[in-house]
Specification:
Shape: elongated
Strand content: under 5%
Helix content: over 70%
Structural class: mainly alpha
Distance between the termini: 49 Å
Largest sheet: none
Number of strands: 0
Order of helices and strands: HHH
Radius of gyration: 23 Å
Number of helices: 3
């Protein structure tokens, strides 16, 4: 008489399918983060949030100074989006470095 395997939950089955798809696609399994890595990532995120908040404040002040000039507002908005994207990119890069060791 063969031993019966316990039934798996839908979650377990879905996770197995995702892992097999990752293996097929050549995606390596990620290792759990250490406490040091987690704290460093949290610190990086806090710093980025502070930088973004500072940028937001300065952006709003600069918008008030334009007096509603559409060309100037457009220029400020474009610069603001670029700066935000730069901060986000640097954050993601720094997090990737921490995760890789």
């Amino acid at each position: 008489m063969a031993t019966e395997k316990p039934l798996k939950s839908a979650y377990e089955l879905a996770m197995e399918r995702l892992k097999s798809k990752d293996r097929e696609a050549g995606v390596a399994e990620t290792k759990p983060l250490t406490a040091t890595q987690k704290s460093r990532i949290a610190e990086l995120r806090r710093d980025a949030q502070a930088k973004l908040a500072e940028m937001e404040i300065l952006h709003r002040k600069n918008l008030e100074k334009t007096g509603g000039d559409p060309a100037e507002v457009l220029k400020l908005e474009d610069n603001y989006r670029t700066d935000r994207a730069r901060v986000d990119s640097r954050l993601e890069s720094a997090i990737a470095k921490v995760k890789s060791g």
